[in-house]
Each structure stands twice: as structure tokens, then as C-alpha cells.
Amino acid sequence: MTDLKHLSSKFWADMETIFSGFDGAIIIDAEGTILLFTEFYAKQMGIKREDVLGKNVVEIFPTTRLMEVIQTGQQIIAEPWEWQGTGHIVSRVPITVDGKIVGAAGYNVIAYDKMPQFLARLSSLNTELSYYKETVKRLSGARYSLASIIGNSEPMLEAKEKARQVAASSAPVLIYGETGTGKELFAHAIHQDSPRRDGPMVRINCAGIPESLMESEFFGYEEGAFTGARKGGKPGKFELANKGSIFLDEINDLPYAMQAKLLRVLQEKEFDRVGGTRTVAADVRVISASNVDLRQPVAENRFRRDLFYRLNVFFIRLPSLRERPEDIPLLVDYFIERQNTENGTHIEGVDREAMNAIVNYPWPGNVRELEICIERACLDAQAGILGLQNLVRFGGRRVAEQGDLPRTVSGLKEARERAEKEAIILALHNTGGNKQKAADLLGIHRTSLYYKLREYDML
After folding, report:
1. Largest alpha-carbon pair distance within the chain?
2. CB distance 70 to 54 below 8 Å
3. Region 146-319: CATH code
4. What is the DSSP-derived secondary structure letter of residue 80?
5. What does the alpha-carbon distance between residue 104 and residue 93 come to, in Å, rounded to a whole number?
6. How far apart are CA 391 and CA 354, in angstroms?
7. Would you list the domain boundaries of the chain?
8. CATH architecture of 4-109
9. pLDDT tens over the chain, length 459 residues
10. Beta strands per DSSP E along 16-67
11. What is the second-level CATH architecture of the domain 322-455?
């Protein structure tokens, strides 16, 4: 083994010249003896070189990690180190000859006079990093919680209770509901109420991606994987959703070829980038949604049965708006309040005729259609009470025509039924959907109220 102590004086003179370019440098042999200590280093530390050279490094600097480098052969790069109240950023590397460790060198990375500026910049960068982390979390995180979902009807309370039950787990969830029933809202709420809430919430619309781009969109690609591939590659949605949740909207439109690849992710919890050779772990909770009953495409061999079983570990069905008419006044109030806040309108409410039309309309587009209708009516009226004319004038004629009560009646029975239905709706609205309080307000027993709700198909 080469003994560094026996190297020529010219060698050490050359080393002194080379290391003088650093803000400070030290070299020790395998036993820890200090063989080189630059003049600049000595001045900055207030030490005389003659008091250091030939001494053991641990004797002079008890907290040094140079001996650890010799013992492990591993370099330590740009590590903070403090000595006598002064902070330094130092690197330490082993010195090897013919594969044998014969010593180690340490040197300062940051100049002493630049340390305050460096630390200030480092603090600034850490602040910026924290800001960007919070921004990413805000933009890619869940926007809704179960508490923010409006609806006190029995079907809606049941759906929210199911979501609350499954949120704490990492089990796949399949949400079924007609268009506009709030499937994405529920997906966000499940993520927000889960242990993964601090992770990202990533959405993929399976119907909105060309089939040729779907695999790279899901799983990403490596540089050069195909013509036009971005330099350095690109992470896919599953990679971006790591430690969080991914929402696969309109899963019923997922191409058959992609279904097998998604099945592998669910089974093996790993995937490959397009053009990649490295398997990527997938720590992702999958929440999927469909506006059709997936059992139908499964029966028609358009959707893999094994994938259906993997996705359908926990099933939540969202009711249509016509199944929960007692929630409509609550939603109307919420949308009016939001329009007043966002668009500066001053709407105070809805008159009885307009509310009757809104409640009696079947709403094929569900909550989304109701929201658009109220937004148009608010923009039309700008202030005051919304009337039937506001629903009609801005594109809501169907609501008025199909939902408005007729001006004449054919008999007392029809008139009584309409009056009872209107009274029930208003009572539920005034009591926030609480059926016991609504029954008290109507002067009937709670059982009688349920009977009327079933009779008028309002449950």
C-alpha cells in the first residue's frame, strides 16, 4: 500500500498549489494523520498550520467525519458542519490507490465570507419550495368534502354514509350515477376524508383521451419512446398520483386494450412507462365512475369481467335529482348564493310559481342542469326574486313548460294532491330537509309524512 507520509515534498507542494483553489482543504492518511492543511484554511479557522500538521485529525477536530469516510469508503458531499460556532458546508472524499483506501480529503464548498448570503438564499429556496408544495397540493388536491355535499334526502344521506365508510380505507371505489349527479364531487370527498388527503388527487377522463395516447397519458413515457416524445420523458397520471388517489371518470369508455393494463396496476400495484425498462411502483387509490351500469358492458363483452370485480370492491350509487326533489330548494338556495358571490348579483330568492316549476321538472341533466338554469335566471334577473319569466327568458322554457303547475284543474283530488305536494316541499325546505321537523310544521305524524312522500314518489 502506498504510504502518503513518504511522498515527496514536491508532491505536497503541488497538492498545496492545487488545493489553494479551494476555500479550505485538508488531507489525512489512513490513520488520520493530517498531512495537508491549506494556509487559507488555517487563517479562516484561526489555527497555526504548524500546530495542526502531523497531528491526528480527531484530536484537532473531534466532530470530523473524515475517519468515517476512510472506514466506509463512501464520500460525503456538501454537508453542513459546525466548528467553534462557525458553520461550514464541506465535502469529504476517500483517496484510493490500486483500489485501497490510503487517506481522505476534505474541502469547503462555500466560501466563509459567502456563508451568510448562502444561508439566506437557502432559506429563501426552502420558503419557495414550501410555497410550491402547498400550491401543487392545492391545485391537485381534493376540492370538496362530504360535509360540503348538499342534500338531506334519504337517498343522499345513504350515499354519503357509504362514502364515509369507505373513505378510511384504500379499497377501490366504483361510483355509479347519471350524468350530473356529482360523481366527481363524491370522488374528491372520499379522497379528502381519507388518510391520503395530503397526497395528490389526479383526474383522468377516460372518454376524453385518444386511444393512441391513452397508455402514455396513464403511465408516462421515456425519452425517445416515440417520435415527438419530450426530452427527458414525461410522468403519467399514475406516477403523479403517487401516495394519493386517481379518479377514472367515465371508466365505461376505457378501450378494451387499456383495461388489461389497468388491471395489472390494480393487481400488481406497478406499471411500466412507455419505452421504459424500469418497473414503477403504484401507491395509488383508484376511484372510478360510470354513468352506465357496468354489468351491461360486461355482459356484452365490452368490459373485462375481472377488471369490473377489481373496481367494484365498494359500490356507491348516486341518486338522480328526480329521486330527491326535497333537496332541490336547498340546491337552489346554494346556487343563488354562489351566483351572488361570484357574479355580483343580488337575488333574494325564488317565488312560489317558479319554485313549483323547478321542483316538478324532471331534470334529465340532474344537478348540473339545475345549476346552469339557476345561473341563467340570476344573470337575467340581476336582483330581487326569481320568477317564472326569468327561467323562460334565458333558455329555461322547458323547465317552465314541463314543471309549471297547470292553470286549471280537473277535480278536487288533483288540486289537493298538488297542494299537499307543494306544502311538503316547502316544509322540507324550511326545515333543511329534516323530516321530523317538517312533519311537525305540517301538523302530521312523521309516519304520515313518509306515506305522503312515497305516495307522491318523492323518496
Report:
1. 119
2. no
3. 3.40.50.300
4. E
5. 6
6. 8
7. 4-109, 146-319, 322-455
8. 2-Layer Sandwich (3.30)
9. 456 766 666 666 666 666 665 667 888 888 999 888 887 777 777 788 888 888 999 988 888 899 999 998 898 888 887 777 677 788 898 988 877 888 888 887 765 556 566 666 666 666 655 555 555 555 545 566 788 899 999 999 999 999 999 999 999 999 999 999 999 999 999 999 999 998 999 999 998 888 888 988 898 887 766 665 666 678 889 989 999 999 999 999 999 999 999 999 999 998 888 887 788 888 999 999 999 999 999 999 999 999 999 999 999 999 999 999 999 999 999 999 999 999 899 999 999 988 998 998 889 889 999 999 999 999 989 999 999 888 876 555 566 556 554 444 445 566 667 767 777 877 777 777 788 888 877 777 777 787 788 777 776
10. 25-29, 34-37
11. Orthogonal Bundle (1.10)
Q: Is 250 helix (H, G, I), strand (E, B) or coil?
A: coil
Burial class (CB in 10 A: 0-12, 13-18, 19+), 289: buried
Instruction: Supply the DSSP symbol for 323.
Output: G
Residues 6 or more apart whose CB falls under 8 angstroms from that of 210 comprise none
Spatial distance between the Cα atoms of 373 and 392, rounded to a whole number of angstroms: 10
What backbone torsions phi and psi does residue 288 show, to the nearest 5 degrees? -120, 160
**Separation between Cα atoms, residue 77 and residue 136, nearest integer Å:** 30
Rg (CA), the chain: 35
**Residue 382 is placed in which grid cell?**
340581476
**CB of 333 within 8 A of CB of 343?**
no
